[in-house]
Amino acid sequence: xxxxxxxxxxxxxxxxxxxxxxxxxxxxxxxxxxxxxxxxxxxxxxxxxxxxxxxxxxxxxxxxxxxxxxxxxxxxxxxxxxxxxxxxxxxxxxxxxxxxxxxxxxxxxxxxxxxxxxxxxxxxxxxx
Length: 128
Hints:
With about 130 residues, this protein is α/β, with parallel strands linked by helices. The chain has helices at about 25-40, 60-70, 85-95, 110-120; strands spanning about 5-10, 15-20, 45-55, 75-80, 100-105.
């Protein structure tokens, strides 16, 4: 599996690490754990670290996006941590469409991103 998933219950966030090809099995393994964490916590933040990305199973990714839309009201913050220059504009566009407070960090800023998603803020739409 090229996707890691770590729960941080005291800080109220999950950390998802992607490094390589992402398939349906990866999404199928993560989504129930994510949903259970949200059910236990009430509202959470998400930290996604993308070190490298290969082939992405598009139907699985779209299904994952749909599941993500259903849980968006339970998210406080979302952070993307990457040094992949082509991914940053996509993240910026997604952030403009999302009601969740979102930031992009470089890999060297991973600890800053962890601190940011750990801050307690209300879930749902954030004013800019």
